[in-house]
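Hi Y.,

Following your request, here is the sequence exactly as I used it, all 294 residues.
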Amino acid sequence: TRLRDHMDDFQQAFNDADIVLALPVYTAGEAPIDGVSSDALRPIRDLSIAGYNATLNKAVTASPTTSYASAAEKNTRLVRAFPTPDDLAKFATEVLGDKRVYTCTQGTEGCPNPTNVTTATGLGPKYEAEYDIVLPKLQTLANISTGSSSSAVYSELQTISAPGMSVSPQLLDSLRRLPTDTRSIAVNRLSQELAMHRVVDKALVARAALLTGLSLPEVTAAGDAIRDTQETIDRLTRYIDDLMYESRIRKELTADTALAIMGSQLQSDSQAMRVPDGRQADPAPLEAGRVRNP
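Below is the corresponding structure, written out as tokens. Let me know if you'd prefer a different format.
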């Protein structure tokens, strides 16, 4: 707690020192505090937690396991995407990767080289995971009888909706009225779009939190230890662009032929179901205001 509470003072106290020897931090009988230790830095994880806490006006060293899902901040975009700082850190490190770096000057004698602790996987696996969550739920909701509404249905709609793209009861009823085959294709396409919205929103939220963390004085003081972190954050923007491009390609390729066939069949069925006009033709129609003689 002494290190946490006086970190700024400790940093300023050594400004004029030529050499500073930092010894390991011991708990002295206290429970360990996340983020307050002499361990090597993990830039993406540490920035995620610090940026999350700073965004919510919390201390940057606040516990990363605290859930704000039921707190006053529950309706913020950050908390809706990531209920805890740890959730954000896990997302960011899996997408961007992370490494263990040391606060000593790289290249000097005795300073260990950075080592990778998490390999970057990009946003692709995140999209697939969201799709696997959304699709079965939307399939279940779309196959319930038309007009069905309950608190459970509305709750499920909220869990699969995405910021800027909600699934309303009206949209759900429209899906239910479609023929079975057409409905299956429509549900698949809608699930893809929802998954895309959810992933891109989380990526944008993560990017904003990382940039907030990068601007903190505590992070700036680390100097060389985080010199490559800005480039890593920029890579997240490229991942978003790549995912959006992939989404456009999928839309162009997925089920266009099937949808066209279904549309033609639906039109034919509609024409076949039309009731012919039962009225007889007028044997003496008006012509120029007069009845024509037979």
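The beta strands are 98-100, 115-118, 286-287, 290-291.

Thanks again,
Q.
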